[in-house]
Design goal:
- This protein is 20% helix and 34% strand.
- With 185 residues, it is an alpha/beta fold.
- The protein binds inosinic acid and magnesium ion.
């Protein structure tokens, strides 16, 4: 893991950030995930569902590694707001535009933490009778799980540290960082 320290400011917040996963580390892993997904979804009617807003960067890179036809759609759930701890309540803020009955759904999320978001969304989507539902997350914090949920595709398992960048925010900022960083102060 890279040990470089950056100072990054956004919205009046200045942070010390340690690089956990570089842009190159991420790109290489996203390519690998794309290869596996290409094999698993061959011949299927793939709908890729991104969870706003955190998944947008991972999703846009991942779908460009997928070589089979697909549609994209989005859902949004309530976020952590200004806190780094989950409220434990998941609220649907934006639903799909697309009907998924009889189709093969790949839900794409930035990170699985407690597991509440993906568990809630998977149950909701299952009730619409897709042929299959799978989940892809860039990051997994297994130590923090409150509910037993195992994603099908995981980019990286990481320790219990608050991370930003590559779509992940702190207080709505820092999503644009091209790497995954840990806030050190
Ligand atoms: P879960 O429902 O607890 O699994 O939380 C998933 C959501 O929490 C993710 O979509 C993120 O928005 C947010 N989250 C969890 N850990 C982090 C983190 O380290 N940095 C930024 N957001 C996080
Ligand atoms: Mg999120």
């Amino acid at each position: 893991m890279a040990k470089r320290v950056f100072t990054k400011s956004g919205g009046g917040i200045g942070l010390q950030v340690r690089v956990m996963l570089s842009a190159d580390d991420i790109a290489e892993r996203v390519r690998e995930l794309g290869e596996v997904i290409n094999r698993d979804f061959e011949g299927k009617d793939l709908v890729v569902v991104g969870i706003l807003k955190g998944a947008v960067i991972f999703m846009s890179d991942l779908i460009r590694e997928i070589k089979i036809p697909l549609e994209v759609d989005f859902m949004a759930t309530s976020s952590y707001g200004a806190s780094t701890k989950s409220s434990g309540v998941v609220q649907l803020v934006k639903d799909l535009d697309t009907a998924i009955e009889g189709r093969d759904v790949l839900v794409v999320e930035d990170i699985i933490d407690s597991g509440l978001t993906l568990s809630y969304l998977s149950q909701l989507l299952l009730s619409r009778k897709p042929t299959s539902i799978k989940t892809a997350v860039l990051l997994d914090k297994p130590e923090r799980r409150q509910i037993n949920f195992v994603p099908n595709y995981v980019g990286f398992s990481i320790p219990d540290e608050f991370v930003i960048g590559y779509g992940l925010d702190f207080n709505h900022k820092f999503r644009e960082l091209p790497y995954i960083g840990v806030v050190t102060d």
